[in-house]
């Protein structure tokens, strides 16, 4: 895609009318797990974790990318702190590797920093998210919501409003558990036949940490 085509990709806040197209982008981007991720997104929008922080990328053909941030809690020694979780991030397969995902992430992070949010967490590929400043969360005193999240995949971005006392355990909203969208699931022993396929798809259904995805 030439830079002219890429410059034709506009970013904006997600509107209600975008929801069917957002679902389509997520289903296409996440493959086998697309519907689970799309269900989680629909549920999160109906919950107290939703603060309207979702952004879309569109060009002349329609929506080509989407990113969502929702509110979680950090159980810090001093008190509970409202923090954000980036999940999911999805770009239409035909438009991947063209910088759209990166633009969506940077656009969203700039909006969170402007709001004064202190911290953004995610489960994902360090190889992808390090370019935006994300670091291994355990290196900064943060504990993940589940031991089933491989440590390198549990990442944090500390924004200007972050304070040194803000450490502790990340607490996901109930919905992430209800939709079973946390960490890695290991199939029962008798399913080992197709374990490689399942593991390749990624650490969590919402976050990319495996070979495929981000
Ligand atoms: C992950 C995803 C959102 C990235 O968006 P994108 O627009 O394709 O990626 P960008 O163009 O912004 O970035 C491309 C760069 O990221 C790298 N990259 C993409 N996925 C990566 C991964 N899983 N691990 C490491 N690097 C990755 C590419 O190699 C490329 O690197 P380069 O800039 O050094 O050439 C997109 O590939 C996607 O939707 N994947 C399927 C759904 C998914 O797994 N989403 C996970 C996010 S929760």
Overall description:
It is a single chain. The protein has 214 residues and is an alpha+beta fold. The protein has a single domain, classed as Aminopeptidase (3-Layer(aba) Sandwich), CATH 3.40.630. Helix content is 28%, strand content 25%. It has seven helices and nine strands. Strands 1, 2, 3, 4, 5, 6, 7, 8 and 9 form a nine-stranded mixed sheet that branches. Helix 4 links the parallel strand 4 and strand 5. The longest helix is centred in the middle third of the chain and has 16 residues. It is globular. The chain binds coenzyme A. Coenzyme A binds next to helix 2, strand 4, helix 4 and helix 5.
Largest sheet: 9 strands, mixed
Instruction: Sketch the topology as an H/E string, one letter per element.
Output: HEHHEEEHEHEEEEHH
Helix/strand-derived category reads: alpha+beta
Number of domains: 1
Summarize the amount of helix as a percent range.
25-40%
Number of strands: 9
Average per-residue pLDDT, rounded, comes to: 90
Proportion of beta-strand residues: 25-35%
How is the CATH topology named? Aminopeptidase
How would the global form be characterised? globular
Class in CATH? Alpha Beta
Oligomeric state of this protein: single chain
Poorly predicted sequence stretches spanning 5 or more consecutive residues: 195-214
CATH architecture: 3-Layer(aba) Sandwich
Instruction: Give me the number of helical elements.
Output: 7
Question: Which kinds of small molecule does this entry bind, naming each only once?
Answer: coenzyme A
């Amino acid at each position: 895609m030439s830079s002219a085509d890429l410059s034709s990709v506009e970013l904006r806040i997600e509107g209600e009318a975008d929801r069917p197209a957002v679902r389509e982008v997520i289903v296409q981007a996440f493959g086998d797990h697309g519907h689970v991720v799309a269900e989680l997104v629909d549920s999160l929008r109906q919950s107290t974790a939703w603060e309207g922080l979702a952004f879309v990328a569109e060009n002349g053909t329609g929506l080509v990318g989407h990113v969502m941030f929702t509110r979680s809690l950090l159980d810090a020694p001093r008190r509970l702190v409202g923090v954000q979780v980036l999940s999911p991030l999805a770009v239409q397969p035909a438009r991947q590797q063209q910088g759209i995902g990166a633009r969506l992430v940077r656009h969203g992070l700039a909006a969170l920093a402007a709001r004064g949010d202190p911290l953004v967490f995610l489960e994902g590929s360090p190889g992808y998210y390090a370019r935006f400043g994300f670091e291994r969360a355990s290196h900064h005193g943060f504990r993940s919501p589940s031991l089933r999240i491989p440590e390198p995949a549990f990442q944090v971005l500390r924004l200007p409003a972050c304070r040194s006392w803000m450490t502790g355990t990340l607490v996901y909203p109930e919905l992430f558990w209800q939709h079973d969208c946390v960490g890695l699931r290991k199939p029962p022993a008798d399913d080992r036949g197709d374990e490689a396929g399942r593991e390749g798809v990624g650490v969590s259904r919402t976050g990319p940490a495996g070979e495929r995805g981000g």
